[in-house]
Structure formats: structure tokens, C-alpha cells
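seq as requested:
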Amino acid sequence: MKRKTWFQLGLVLLLTAVFLFFFFRRTDWKEVWTYLREVRVGWFLFALCFSPLHLATRAFRWKYLIVHEKRDVKFYNLFAANAVGFTVTFMLPGRVGELVKPLYLARREGCRAGFTVGTIVVERIFDMFTMCSLLGLFLLSRPLYASVLKIQTQTEKNLVFWGIIGAALASGLLVFSLLFYFFKDKAVRVAASVLKPLPHKIRDIILNLLHEFIDGLKIFHSLGNLLTYVGLSFVVWLGITYFYWIFFHAFGLRIPFFLLIPYIFLSMVGASIPTPGMAGGFHYFSKLGLVELYGVNPNLALGVTVVVHAVQLVVTCLIGYAILWKDGLSLFQLRRLRETMNP
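C-alpha cells:
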């Protein structure tokens, strides 16, 4: 393994350990177990059924990006690519699944690899914009729920801070993508100039991938598809919110649906940190949200967070491994699949 790879792995593991330290500190495990034993089995099983919902809604939404490359893409392959991608993300550090997901679909449907990777950039832009929009709506609606949910001033400031960070990142990616798409020829010329010192064969491979990547941004050229995609992005994240609403009911946390939005936002921030299996980052921000926003007992918040993460990991990986078994693939082969993007 290269020294750079070891350094990156060490940094990721250190980051994970730091988050988990703050997540687990001052935990009363007896109290955690007491809370977990009081789970409402009916609600819990109901939540299990809805755990894969986001894989289906993401698959349906993705079709509106892939249609610019291929119209008759099978829904199963879109769903399978999402399941496999999230499985890899859960099992390996660095959010490798974000790259495996489009490459898996490209292999299954005969699409261009660069094109499918370009669609993932669009996905992430709209994921961030959607959650920032929902968070903004939540903050602007504060007078309507002030009597139900009292948020500390510092907590509100933190929400605004992370909302601004998310919106800024999404805006930066959007501007970058639009410049690449609408000024494609200039972007390719600049890239060719930068890559000039490289061997001719490698330069051609990279430029070809860049052309495919830019084609993956074609949704910005179709207003109808773009508006549909925006609407489906809200469906995806409201569906995720619904899963958590059901899951929290299983542990007696009757938080109104709309008031879960800031928690979902914070969880998204934590899950975006490239730790192995989303561990650490998701745990810390999930517990933080439950305690700071809703006044949940820290031990209950810890227990609920551990269980909800385990449910998502187990359900997703079972689906993902079943698909890989059906395809005769392994995680090692998927890592090699990722290398097809590297010249």
C-alpha cells in the first residue's frame, strides 16, 4: 500500500475515533439498555420495512438524469446500483461507494462511465440544495412552532452556520458544473493545456472521460426534466424524514414530522464525513441533534442512534450483498471496477 494511502487511512481512522470518543463519553450503559428494552416492536418492524425506501426513490429520481444517455434503463439496475453503492460506502472508508454506484450502473446498462459519474455530481448538488431549502423553511417557520419546540439561541446559530456551509458548497459545485457544461469547449481546451505534459495516451483517456462527465450534466439543458428532478429530490428527503419519524416512534420519541427536518439535516452533515461506514460523524451529529434540538436524554439519544445506524447498515448490506451474489461479484471486484476510471 502506498505511503499516501496509509496516511489517508490513518487520518480517516483518527477522525472516526475522535467523533466516536465524543459520542460515547459519559455514557451510562445500564440506562441505555433500559431505554432500548422499551422499544415498541410494531413500530420497529414498520420502520424496518421503510428502511430501503430511499433506495427506491433515489433510483426513480436518477432515471431523469440517465435518460439523456439511455431512455430504457431498467429500474432494477438503478435500484441495484444505489444498494451496491451504499453497501460499499458502509463497508469501506472514503465514501468509495459514490464512485462504485455510477460505474456499476454503467457496466449493467452499457452507459459511458464518465457520463454516469457526472450524474452523481448533479445528485449531490441537489441533495444539498434540497436539505438546505428544507432547513431554511424550518427556520423561517419558527413562529409557528415556537410554543412546541424551544430551540436554544446557540443551537439555532449552529443550524444557520451549517446551513450556510451546505448552501455554499452546493452553490460552488453548481457554478463549477454550469461553467463546465455551458463552456464545454473552453473547459476541455484548458484541461488539455494543463494535461499537456502527460503522455499522449493518458491525456486522451482523461479528456475522453471529461467529455463524458460534462455530458452527464445535460439535465441543466432541459427545464422540464430539471423541475421534475427538483420535485423528486424533495420526495427523496421527505421519504427519509418519514423513515426516521416512524423509527423514533418505536422508542417513544413523538417528534412532529416537520420538526424532524433540522435533525435530518445534521445527520446528513455527519454522514457526509468520509469515515468507514459513516461511523463517528453520523453518530455524533445524530446524538447532538436529538439532545440539543429536542431535549432527549443523552443515553436514549445514544441508544437510538446506534440502533438506527445498525438498521440502515444491516438492511442495506443484506440487499447489496444479495445483488452482488446474484451478479457473481465481490467487494474486491468492485474496488477494481473503480480503477477503470483511473488511466
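Residues 114 and 210 are 7 Å apart (CA to CA).
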